[in-house]
Amino acid sequence: MTNFNRRGFLKLTGGAAAVAGAVVAAPHVAKAAGGKVVIVGGGVGGATTARYLKLADPAIDVTLIEPNATYHTCFMSNEVLSGERTLDQIAVTYDGLKAIGINVVKDTVSGIDAAGKKVSTAGGQTFAYDRCVVAPGISFKLDGFGGVSDAMFDKIPHAWKAGPQTALLRKQLEAMPDGGTFCLVAPPNPFRCPPGPYERASQIAMYFQHNKPKSKVVILDRKDKFSKQGLFMGAWKELYGYGTDNSIIRWVNAAEVGTIESIDPSTMTVKTDFETVKADVINYIPPQVAGEIAISAGLTNDKGWCDVDKVTFESKVHPGIHVLGDASVATSMLKSGYSANSQGKVCAVAINAALKGQEMGTPSYVNTCYSIAGKDYGFSVAAVYKYDKEKDVIAGVAGSGGLTPGDASAEMRRREVEFAYSWYDNILKDTWG
Ligand code: FAD
């Protein structure tokens, strides 16, 4: 990877907002065509699409259906686990979307009738649409090993959807004795936020270092390598003694784990081919597929994700339905909040164009993913993407991004944390208003 050059990156993207601005501005016409758009899910992808559609043309009737009155962002939720933030500090409401005229309905979508172009809800409501957007995020495909069940999550949280699960895991970490073990079972690819488990391990190691210094973090992985591995391991060496007998963190790769035989909530053990880890707190992050409604609506492929047209995010199965964010297959873009936000803007442009009978341009996308591995210790990976018509992929633009250098100065690492916090504030505003 080339060294990260922020100025070059910004020059290429024109800044994230400008990328969106350029795409959103292109097909706008003064005459409002209206049309009805129903959006399933008020997370990053759904909320961004709703907001940018309404901004593109206030005459479009936009309904957003979401079961929760408050959305908790997964991004920065690892800081809740380490006590650096409270749960309230990662909460956002839908007031900003309501204020610009979006009809926000608190309900769960229970069915999508693609032929009849209508959406029904658990609360008994029906909504007709010209275009539907499905952005339900992920659901879990539990492993077949012993002891694992949905009921288990009350005792062994996944905390991979932020909210009550995050609060539960934090409570368990606080209650854990000094000298205890936290065991994180990391998921196989592909999954939401590839650096997330390792940022989590880092944040919890930081919490232990200051509050329970005899405690340990054990990561049982289902992979032999992971996102930003060099940077994480560098941070772990510098901050948490990684590679020494006193390391707070132990990472066990897939080969060393072998098969996981069981996770037993009654004995709080994880049994692998080679060892039995006895833990005080276990965090099992299961394998993932698209959100359940995408599956029941028949939008998923045999791997559990949704194939879409990469210019418009329109489903390859059901015309008139667009799927974006984590649930979609957006080649080479990581499953991240920033990706979902960028895709939401492109999708809004595509729907606005379709409603008006206009042609859609060639979109570009952006993603930056920050990780905070310790106090004043951050790094990031950034990329700009463009649709490649020949290969039909969303591909990284050569020379457009990169990683924070491994030998970055302490000042640069500190600034990365500041950038991460400012990115967080900006994406909240950009997505939910
Ligand atoms: P979501 O944001 O999950 O939204 C889905 C929404 O759909 C939810 O609100 C849900 O309630 C709703 N929904 C589901 N089913 C239905 C239904 N049937 N009817 C109505 N509504 C429904 N990304 C980053 O960019 N940067 C980070 O630093 C980062 N850190 C992360 C850290 C962690 C620990 C985790 C777990 C994730 C992190 N992510 C990060 C990833 C990011 O949170 C996701 O990629 C992003 O939320 C995906 O957006 P989405 O819209 O696809 O799904």
What would you note in describing this structure?
The structure is a single chain. It is built from 12 helices and 23 strands. With 433 residues, it is α/β, with parallel strands linked by helices. It starts with 5 loop residues before the first helix and ends with a helix. The structure holds flavin-adenine dinucleotide. Residues 40-46, 65-68, 71, 74-75, 77-78, 108-109, 135-137, 160, 192-193, 196, 200, 291, 293, 325-327, 335-338, 340, 369-370 line the site of flavin-adenine dinucleotide. Flavin-adenine dinucleotide (FAD) binds at residues 40-46, 65-68, 71, 74-75, 77-78, 108-109, 135-137, 160, 192-193, 196, 200, 291, 293, 325-327, 335-338, 340, 369-370.
Which helices and strands appear, and what pairs or packs with what?
Elements: H1 6-13, H2 16-25, E1 36-40, H3 44-56, E2 61-66, E3 70-72, H4 77-82, E4 91-93, H5 95-99, E5 103-106, E6 109-113, E7 118-121, E8 126-128, E9 131-134, E10 138-140, H6 164-175, E11 181-185, H7 196-211, E12 216-220, H8 229-240, E13 249-252, H9 254-257, E14 260-264, E15 269-272, E16 276-278, E17 281-284, E18 288-290, H10 292-296, E19 321-323, H11 337-355, E20 364-374, E21 377-388, E22 393-396, E23 402-403, H12 410-432
Parallel strand pairs: 1-2, 1-9, 2-5, 9-19, 11-12, 11-17, 12-13
Antiparallel strand pairs: 3-4, 6-7, 7-8, 10-18, 14-15, 15-16, 20-21, 21-22, 21-23
The chain binds flavin-adenine dinucleotide (FAD).
